[in-house]
């Protein structure tokens, strides 16, 4: 029995979020999936399955697709989201977020372009085009690459091979309207495919205005994004050769938690490779890729009120990532030995300017380079009913920074910090080791499982080389000013998880309890022992920017522990109750304090009635108070809330459906604990308050597949 949970959602034939029985999930495997037994899969734009047993309900939790795919990934058990704007959300998984959770699109990893992560990986996965989101259960296998916690991959819709020797057309289209922000999204696929060839084009357009909440409008939250993609594959008797080019263009879009808004992200993705069997029981995967991000953000284009000339800023940021991966697998799908290696080279450059003064510019991240070379071994097999996956990997990472240039209008404070940075080492190297062991016992309705792991994370180039005190913090968006630390050591997490999967005709239940002990956990801490006393050049420069209490990234010690579960209850053939529940606690071990930005306990429950082509239902999402907050970071407590939505779906035919619903039915005003704080002065959200959730609204979506 596989351990997969499928949160089924068919955009093109229904965008329904459902937990299907584990056995049925086997029908969803593709060449991009690794092991379904170790992966939670949210199906977003796949064709609705017709293989569901009569006692299982296929219809299920339906939502208005958010533009941000991170909000969909956050629906897994243990998930939550840092709400940094309509297109900039970051997934929090079991208390870890940011670079601690590996993010990829179409299997390709890459560095984000913005120094404050306005473009986290799922920024490049428009929900209207996402086919599925794979989330590694608890701990990412070593084959996925280095990752302290979980790993997430968003797979966009693509052309699929057929069983015919002749080319035949494939077409998918979808469109959605949402009243709360007057937004629309349209997207689709046009393709030709045969048993040997697949050639496809996908495209999407999304646009939304400032969203409304009970009591006003959250000014500065409008967004625009386009995506274009061309891909092809040729299948031989041995396997598939594939190639893909994708262009993502984000136009002016608001980021109220940040000091600057997006003016543009122009990003090009290229990848290609081979996946298949080169001999009997010998599989080969090879992938090469390049991602180029070009980014501009400012406080002039969208920000209300616009910054005065002396404080006007426009920041240019570039990031280029080159990746190479190769793996040999000996054996079958359930018993194999895999040997692999991967390389990643990233180049970044960030320049802060004043658009009203050409003599003011600062290279805050000059010629930042990171090179990583990794190798791993992974063995999967079984002894009787006991199945296991054992893996280990080693990574060598080298990082360096160039020499910053400053314009003549830059004051002496930053000049002194730049001189000190130039005189420093500006280089670092680390060798890290990861080990993962997973065991589960198959047979019958109950499947016990255990995971033990040692996982690591090398400090980011921002955490190490941020010589200029700024608000760049890889998306914390908390208004604090941070500075880097070249003496940082890699984080090391010791992880234990235990749980079971129970599945029968009327119930699916999957609880998990876990503990993570993290040595050298990296967190912002007061710059020195006298916070608020300006007695150092760093504090002087930070005070010039409005914060006399800067934070420095330092190694601390931490622990995270908790439990989560997902469930499906089927009391009748036409009724399904499904949901998730999550709770996590994060604490410092070196001092008496809680970790920063830990999500509150939450519960999501949906109930669906289905009969023939019609499905109707409701969903409740509730979060508890969060008063266990980081005093070191001046984190404020969060209030609990509960919101209710309604949804319905009618399938006119197998490939044509209409969906509609209402969100926040009782027009409840609430602000999620992980929502960031507004910096927009002209908004109905007071400066410094958490961005509230959207007000009551309706949405409608039409989908078609030919």
UniProtKB/TrEMBL annotation:
Main location (coarse class): membrane
Residues of the signal peptide: 1-25
A biological process term (GO) from this entry: siderophore transmembrane transport
Classification via InterPro entries: Beta-barrel_TonB, Beta-barrel_TonB_sf, Plug_dom, Plug_dom_sf, TonB-dep_rcpt-like, TonB_box_CS
Residue stretches making up the TonB-dependent receptor-like beta-barrel domain: 225-665
Keywords: Cell outer membrane, Membrane, Receptor, Signal, TonB box, Transmembrane, Transmembrane beta strand, Transport
Membrane association type: Multi-pass membrane protein
Alphabetical list of Pfam families matching this protein: Plug, TonB_dep_Rec_b-barrel
Entry's localization field: Cell outer membrane
GO CC terms, sorted: cell outer membrane
Family in the record: Belongs to the TonB-dependent receptor family.
Protein name per its UniProtKB record: TonB-dependent receptor
């Amino acid at each position: 029995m596989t351990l997969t949970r499928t949160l089924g959602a068919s955009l093109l034939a229904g965008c329904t979020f459902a937990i299907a029985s584990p056995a049925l999930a086997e029908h969803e495997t593709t060449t991009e999936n690794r092991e379904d037994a170790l992966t939670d899969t949210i199906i977003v734009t796949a064709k609705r399955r017709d293989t569901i047993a009569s006692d299982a309900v296929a219809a299920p939790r339906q939502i208005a697709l958010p533009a941000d795919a991170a909000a969909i990934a956050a629906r897994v058990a243990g998930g939550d989201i840092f709400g940094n704007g309509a297109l900039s959300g970051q997934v929090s998984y079991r208390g870890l977020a940011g670079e601690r959770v590996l993010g990829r699109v179409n299997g390709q990893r890459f560095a984000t372009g913005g120094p404050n992560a306005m473009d986290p990986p799922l920024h490049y996965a428009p929900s209207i085009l996402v086919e599925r989101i794979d989330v590694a259960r608890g701990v990412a296998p070593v084959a996925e690459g280095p990752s302290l916690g979980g790993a997430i991959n968003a797979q966009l819709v693509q052309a699929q091979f057929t069983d015919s020797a002749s080319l035949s057309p494939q077409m998918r289209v979808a469109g959605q309207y949402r009243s709360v922000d007057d937004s629309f999204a349209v997207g689709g696929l046009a393709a030709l495919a045969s048993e040997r060839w697949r050639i496809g084009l996908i495209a999407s357009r999304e646009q939304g205005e400032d969203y409304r909440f009970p009591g006003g409008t959250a000014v500065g939250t409008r967004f625009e994004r386009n995506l274009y993609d061309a891909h092809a594959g040729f299948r031989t008797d041995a396997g598939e050769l594939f190639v893909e080019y994708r262009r993502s263009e984000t136009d002016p879009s608001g980021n109220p938690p940040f000091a600057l808004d997006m003016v543009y992200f122009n990003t090009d993705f290229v990848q290609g490779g081979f996946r298949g069997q080169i001999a009997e029981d010998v599989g080969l995967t090879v992938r090469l890729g390049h991602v180029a991000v070009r980014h501009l953000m400012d406080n002039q284009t969208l920000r209300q009120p616009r910054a005065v000339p002396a404080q006007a800023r426009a920041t240019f940021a570039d990031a280029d990532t080159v990746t190479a991966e190769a793996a040999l697998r000996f054996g079958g799908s359930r018993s194999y030995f895999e040997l692999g290696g991967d390389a990643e080279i990233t180049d970044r450059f960030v320049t802060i300017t004043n658009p009203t003064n050409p003599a003011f510019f600062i290279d805050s991240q000059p010629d930042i380079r990171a090179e990583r070379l990794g190798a791993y071994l992974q063995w999967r097999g079984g002894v009787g009913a006991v199945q296991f996956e054992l893996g280990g990997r080693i990574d060598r990472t080298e990082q360096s920074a160039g020499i910053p240039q400053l314009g003549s209008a830059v004051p002496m404070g930053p000049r002194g910090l730049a001189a000190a940075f130039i005189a420093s080492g500006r280089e670092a190297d680390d060798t890290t080791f990861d080990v993962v062991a997973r065991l589960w016992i198959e047979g019958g309705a109950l499947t016990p499982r255990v995971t033990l792991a040692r996982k690591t994370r090398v400090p980011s180039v921002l955490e190490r080389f941020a010589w200029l005190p700024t608000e760049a913090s890889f998306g914390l968006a908390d208004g604090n000013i941070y500075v880097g630390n070249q003496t940082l050591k890699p984080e090391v997490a010791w992880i234990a998880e235990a749980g079971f999967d129970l599945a029968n005709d009327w119930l699916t239940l999957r609880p998990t309890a876990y503990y993570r002990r993290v040595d050298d956990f990296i967190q912002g801490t007061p710059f020195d022992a006298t916070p608020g006393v300006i007695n150092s050049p760093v504090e002087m420069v930070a005070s010039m920017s409005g914060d006399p209490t800067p934070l420095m990234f330092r190694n601390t010690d931490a622990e995270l522990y908790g439990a989560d579960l997902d469930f499906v209850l089927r009391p009748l053939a036409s009724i399904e109750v499904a949901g998730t529940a999550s709770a996590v606690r994060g604490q410092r071990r070196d001092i008496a304090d809680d970790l920063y930005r830990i999500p509150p306990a939450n519960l999501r429950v949906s109930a669906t009635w289905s009969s023939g082509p019609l499905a109707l239902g409701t969903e409740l999402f509730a979060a508890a108070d969060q008063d266990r907050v980081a005093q070191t970071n001046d984190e404020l407590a969060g209030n609990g809330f509960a919101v209710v939505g309604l949804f319905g779906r009618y399938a006119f035919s197998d490939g044509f459906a209409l969906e509609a619903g209402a969100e926040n039915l009782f027009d409840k005003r609430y602000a999620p604990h992980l929502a960031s704080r507004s910096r927009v002065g002209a908004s109905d959200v007071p400066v410094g308050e958490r961005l509230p959730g959207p007000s009551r609204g309706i949405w409608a979506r039409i989908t078609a597949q030919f």
